[in-house]
Amino acid sequence: MPTFSPDSLLAVRFHNARPGLELAAIIDAALPIALITADVLAQDRKRLALLDEFVLRLVNNKVPSETAIAGMLGLPERMVSQTVADHFSADNLTYTLPAPGQPDARTLRLTARGEQTAREMAAITPVRVDQPVVYDQLLGKVRPYDRRTVVPRGQAEESGMLMLPAVHGALVEIGDISAGDINALLRERGNTDREVLQVRGVTQAKARRVMPAKVLVYADPDRTDIQLGVVVDGELSHHHEITLIGLGGAASLGIAVEPAAERPVLEPELEKARVALPDVTQQRAEQAALQLASTPAAPVAPAELDPQHDEIRAIGVFEHPELLDDALTQARHRLLIISPWIKNAIVTTEFLGKLESRLTRGVRVHIAYGYDDSDAKTDQAAVRKLANLAARYPAKFTFSRLKSTHAKVLVYDDVWVTTSFNWLSFRGARDRTYRMEEGSLVRNRQITDTQYARYIELIDQQGW
Q1: H helical segments located in 247-319
Q2: DSSP string computed for 13-65
Q3: Could you say which of 28, 126, 153, 411 has the lowest number of CB atoms within 10 Å?
Q4: CB of 127 within 8 A of CB of 316?
Q5: Alpha-carbon distance 319 to 292, whole Å?
Q6: pLDDT per residue over 121-168, tens digit each?
Q7: Angle, CA of 246, 221 and 219, to the nearest 5°
Q8: CA–CA separation, 14 and 25 (whole Å)
Q9: Is the CB of residue 217 less than 8 Å from the CB of residue 25?
Q10: SS3 at position 47
């Protein structure tokens, strides 16, 4: 069974979250947050209820009976008697022996265990502590985000993440965080040992940080009704969705959805044998559901892997990144990528590391790009990185600028993929316009050999 990418698993889980709409895109997004250290007055939570505490304290101060305790507290005596009975069972209370001639003059007293409990309660006093919290600047409240998962804003911008708005400004003030907010946060984290009584001040880290999130883009068949979902910590967040709707929804973020791009058509015999996208999608959904439901399996040694059978089938938009990653990590003999444009968001340090790993293993690599005379949609920094890598492996890596190509092709070993998907620029586009990309995958040595030779000839003719 294949291993699915996080985006594919999200697509399986949430593709039906908007009835009547189609999941058109999953966008890497950056949720603006502030790292805050709150100066709070707090105390450890007492392990006794308030009435239990007062009964023990009053007995410790020589109040002798249930009747006297009830009178001092202004409570029904039956309530006090029940609490006293509970403390007898817990070995916190007992009776003193009556004096001779006074058989009804029993008085309550603390046992040794009860005295220890009373001392512990008396020792609990509020203290000032520093409480680290994460403040969500889109929602305007503290949230239980893991501080270790946040990243610098500059890093998020460089990787092409969609920057969500900071509605509540860059500066968090003391009035923005309450003791109740922090207590709710602590309870959500499972911490019930401490209670915050007062927030006395806040200190905000100067460095700008963001929380990685996902924005799901849904659209109707006409692409006129566009709705957004926001996934934070792996779950849909209705609070973030509602906030974005109030800000103008998809339009406010520059998100648009266009009709599905026309996929390249295969030769008639291949087209006839091609498994259609709905059938492929259903099969992948079933496989992904099994992956979500199962525990991680032990790694399988390469020698134990079953050989891939020939196949001709459709591939949907969310499978393309998986195939690219598979090529970068699994190709053994050859790897060819043709993409009109190249973006920094794709040609990352991780991408280059995986590509170089293929080169060191003897894989022959060809990458070609170019749409027309203009490189306006291509990041020149990404081009330089690939050119530098090619210069280090001149016998193994050919990196070419084509005069013009509409081809969007991936070839690795016995796999050929032709599609409408931009392999090296599907992230980081400034216009945020999305469409349902579809392609075809052919896993067959003879067919792939023929196509590989055709694209090598194209690169040789147009490359410069």
Answers
A1: 249-252, 268-273, 277-293
A2: HHTTSSTT-EEEEEEEEEEEEEEEEEEEEEEEPPSS-HHHHHHHHHHHTT--S
A3: 126
A4: no
A5: 17
A6: 665 667 888 999 999 999 999 998 988 899 999 999 887 789 999 987
A7: 25
A8: 12
A9: yes
A10: coil
